[in-house]
Thioredoxin (Maridesulfovibrio ferrireducens), 148 residues
Amino acid sequence: MDDTTSGAIHVVCPNCRAVNRVLSKRFGDQPACGKCGGQVLIPKPVELTASTFDRFISKTDLPVLVDFWAPWCGHCKSMAPAFQSAAAEIFPKTLTAKVDTEYSKELSAKFNIRSLPTLLLFNNGREQKRISGAMTTQQIVAWVKQSG
């Protein structure tokens, strides 16, 4: 029986980056990582860097919404609480992550980030769509939901 028919997905642990197989019916049980014992599915953004980004995005079967931001960006700071709230609302159907573009400049270049904040929605390891500019919680949630 493959993972699709068994209702299982692969999720990268936000703590140790191990790939875990989680049954869909166990999402609400706060599944633990088989390697580090940490919680695998969390309703808040995971901090990603150039060294952790590709594995987290490509090995997680769920969609991942990524906020590209910078510490000096006023709009990014004002949107941070809305992104945190949206993360809880779209969880567990979509996971969330944040990338500090000052710390991970190579990711900014790789994804051609030209304005901040910019949200990228990934599915199956590939960028599905993007939007730039500060948004409210409701706007973020609506944008993700209309993305499918």
About this structure: The chain has five helices and seven strands. The longest strand covers residues 126-132. Confidence is low (pLDDT under 50) at residues 1-5.
